[in-house]
């Protein structure tokens, strides 16, 4: 019986080989050396293009500022850009602002939207379709449609240049996004668990809180992380709402080093590395789950 | 915001009996349709309430105000503001649809819209094609696959504004690495960001670079969910590699690709940081997309033109919503349950 299992493959290979008699029949998954080289070449070129700009900034940050624009890969490796950045600029203040603002946005966003993600994953209720569409549509809200009214509201409330103003603003991005993502993660948790909770006499909220939430922790972590990164990298609101050196976030601060009159590439590259490395490490760790949540939430909408 | 606009009351009511009924025991049959719905669905409604409230307050209210501003002549000088201790009241006036008429009949909006469309279509098209190619390569058994994958995802992992500054560093006309390399090969440096045509090319290149990882990873996930039996069956029927791609891979990727195309179209249309940080819309206004131009009206020119900016914002939103509706309808007619 075991030999019989192989026959379909053999049969399939034979006619294929007969038709293209010049080529040797190949099993599925094997390829010619030429194809292999071509594939690897493509991947190597693509990887170099993907990595190089980042790598170049890293290498530049380790060169003395006066050599920043030379093409040598290594030249008097030094950390002076980093020490100068921390000593002579407001970098740490900006970093702190960004941490506080992105952190608060994340915590509030996740906290507000967790139950919604669960409800839209589990229940059908009047208004659900409308809510799902609202969540989707608010993600396509251009900065341009909200930035002026929010700016005006904030300015009458005295919240321009205040971290609180930016946090509230960022919630407009983070809340719909978190709800959307978390729905995707809750969808991956089997409904039988809810049912067992019901059988044990838990209320819907009890089921959510005691059974589902602990299981969804990784998904929530990923959602939280992604909304942190989004706030961390936001440019438009940050540039418009935060003025004055001490209130800038990193996105605004980095612009200080590069303006139309020239660029201080030394501190700029050092700052870039300090901003990017921690984010990149965690991101690479979380990215597998990220797409699952995003596409699952959307596909099964 | 029209949040509770669903038509699916009947369908929904039937579906949720198991969960809702436990709360309703002992109460007499409620008189009204709404009361009945409330007794069945109050749990779900309570759970979504925080988001509905937050969206209503911080998105809905500003949105309504934004639409209102677009119907006025509001600018920096006539909005309510406080100077020191003096509170100045708003003095702007309702002007009806004048701003919309100006925008739609003047050349600036339509010109910017034209480039925004070119920008969006070329970015999404190129990004999708390259992402698809890379995803298919990475989906094969190939040595060092996870290392390649890691490298290719890197642009996504770096905060966008950092990458954009890295590219500005490379594009720098006199001292940037790209021109040094060209110079080394005996080619004249290219004014990457200072020539209208090259600037357009440059901003698209950066956005493609930024966008490929997301599409690639999403499609890779989609590819892995296509059952390998389908490929085996196709191969048995003598399908060539191209036919397999055309008739197995593409249909199998449909749910994922419709989503990523929709998302990346919206994101690209509104891609503020790339344009703002690379060129500020320049040289001239040649790379200005709708979003950056709307931003410019209210935050870069003086006096700040809030009305104009809001008008552009509303028009952008309308365009995107039209796009989403049409897109969804097209998918529907093709049989997607989306």
TrEMBL record, chain A:
<feature type="transmembrane region" description="Helical">
    <location>
        <begin position="37"/>
        <end position="59"/>
    </location>
</feature>
<dbReference type="InterPro" id="IPR000515">
    <property type="entry name" value="MetI-like"/>
</dbReference>
<protein>
    <submittedName>
        <fullName>Carbohydrate ABC transporter permease</fullName>
    </submittedName>
</protein>
<keyword id="KW-1003">Cell membrane</keyword>
<dbReference type="GO" id="GO:0015423">
    <property type="term" value="F:ABC-type maltose transporter activity"/>
</dbReference>
<feature type="compositionally biased region" description="Basic residues">
    <location>
        <begin position="20"/>
        <end position="29"/>
    </location>
</feature>
<feature type="region of interest" description="Disordered">
    <location>
        <begin position="1"/>
        <end position="31"/>
    </location>
</feature>
<feature type="transmembrane region" description="Helical">
    <location>
        <begin position="131"/>
        <end position="151"/>
    </location>
</feature>
<dbReference type="GO" id="GO:0042956">
    <property type="term" value="P:maltodextrin transmembrane transport"/>
</dbReference>
<keyword id="KW-0472">Membrane</keyword>
<feature type="transmembrane region" description="Helical">
    <location>
        <begin position="163"/>
        <end position="182"/>
    </location>
</feature>
<feature type="compositionally biased region" description="Low complexity">
    <location>
        <begin position="1"/>
        <end position="18"/>
    </location>
</feature>
<comment type="similarity">
    <text>Belongs to the binding-protein-dependent transport system permease family. MalFG subfamily.</text>
</comment>
<keyword id="KW-0813">Transport</keyword>
<keyword id="KW-1133">Transmembrane helix</keyword>
<feature type="transmembrane region" description="Helical">
    <location>
        <begin position="263"/>
        <end position="286"/>
    </location>
</feature>
<feature type="transmembrane region" description="Helical">
    <location>
        <begin position="220"/>
        <end position="243"/>
    </location>
</feature>
<keyword id="KW-0762">Sugar transport</keyword>
<dbReference type="InterPro" id="IPR050901">
    <property type="entry name" value="BP-dep_ABC_trans_perm"/>
</dbReference>
<dbReference type="Pfam" id="PF00528">
    <property type="entry name" value="BPD_transp_1"/>
</dbReference>
<keyword id="KW-0812">Transmembrane</keyword>
<dbReference type="GO" id="GO:0005886">
    <property type="term" value="C:plasma membrane"/>
</dbReference>
Automatic annotation (TrEMBL), chain B:
<keyword id="KW-0813">Transport</keyword>
<dbReference type="Pfam" id="PF00528">
    <property type="entry name" value="BPD_transp_1"/>
</dbReference>
<feature type="domain" description="ABC transmembrane type-1">
    <location>
        <begin position="113"/>
        <end position="327"/>
    </location>
</feature>
<dbReference type="GO" id="GO:0005886">
    <property type="term" value="C:plasma membrane"/>
</dbReference>
<feature type="transmembrane region" description="Helical">
    <location>
        <begin position="117"/>
        <end position="138"/>
    </location>
</feature>
<dbReference type="InterPro" id="IPR035906">
    <property type="entry name" value="MetI-like_sf"/>
</dbReference>
<keyword id="KW-0812">Transmembrane</keyword>
<feature type="transmembrane region" description="Helical">
    <location>
        <begin position="42"/>
        <end position="64"/>
    </location>
</feature>
<dbReference type="GO" id="GO:0055085">
    <property type="term" value="P:transmembrane transport"/>
</dbReference>
<protein>
    <submittedName>
        <fullName>Sugar ABC transporter permease</fullName>
    </submittedName>
</protein>
<feature type="transmembrane region" description="Helical">
    <location>
        <begin position="150"/>
        <end position="170"/>
    </location>
</feature>
<dbReference type="InterPro" id="IPR050809">
    <property type="entry name" value="UgpAE/MalFG_permease"/>
</dbReference>
<feature type="transmembrane region" description="Helical">
    <location>
        <begin position="306"/>
        <end position="327"/>
    </location>
</feature>
<feature type="transmembrane region" description="Helical">
    <location>
        <begin position="256"/>
        <end position="278"/>
    </location>
</feature>
<keyword id="KW-0472">Membrane</keyword>
<keyword id="KW-1133">Transmembrane helix</keyword>
<comment type="similarity">
    <text>Belongs to the binding-protein-dependent transport system permease family.</text>
</comment>
<keyword id="KW-1003">Cell membrane</keyword>
<feature type="transmembrane region" description="Helical">
    <location>
        <begin position="201"/>
        <end position="223"/>
    </location>
</feature>
<dbReference type="InterPro" id="IPR000515">
    <property type="entry name" value="MetI-like"/>
</dbReference>
<feature type="region of interest" description="Disordered">
    <location>
        <begin position="1"/>
        <end position="32"/>
    </location>
</feature>
